Amino acid sequence: MTRLNQESVNWTILFLCWLLAGASTTASLFFSQVMEFAPCVLCWYQRIALFPLVIILAAGLFPLDRGVLKYALPLAVAGWLTAAYHNLLYAGIIPEDLQPCAQGVSCTEEYISLFGFLTIPMLSLLSFSTIIALLITLKTRMSR
């Protein structure tokens, strides 16, 4: 594979990350602003990790910047850890006394359930998982 083709594939992988972060941000804003689902504390922490990814990943696209991984990957991992904790809490695996949502909207409030298992915390976990997998793939390709 030529160097130009490798750069093109790397740019496409980073673009897919940005597209997924953008779609997730749009969905998050749609749920809260249009559907009027109030976000809980853990949802806000996930948003804090997700929303900057849209800007950071876009900045890494033009031109393709290898340094974007230093900033995007830790944010995605922080979002993933929060989403994983949220899913464990949602599933009842973590006891209720460890919930950070003592006041306001409950972290276990069920707004949607697609196909019986796709909840908002699960969608967040899937989104961060995919972004992390793509960023690790990009990191592996760039280190060659």
Describe this structure in words.
The chain has 144 residues and is mainly α. It is built from 4 helices and no strands. It is elongated. The two termini are 13 Å apart. The model has no long low-confidence stretch (mean pLDDT 92).
Main β-sheet: number of strands, strand sense, barrel status?
Answer: none
The low-confidence parts are none
The gyration radius over C-alpha positions equals 17 Å
Give the percentage of residues in beta strands. under 5%
> Given the C-alpha coordinates, what overall shape results?
elongated
Q: Layout of SSEs?
A:
Layout lengths: L2 H32 L6 H21 L6 H23 L29 H23 L2
Helix pairs in contact: 1-2, 1-4, 2-3, 3-4
Summarize the structure.
It is built from 4 helices and no strands. The chain is 69% helix and 0% strand.
Structure characteristics:
single chain; 144 residues; mainly alpha; 4 helices; elongated
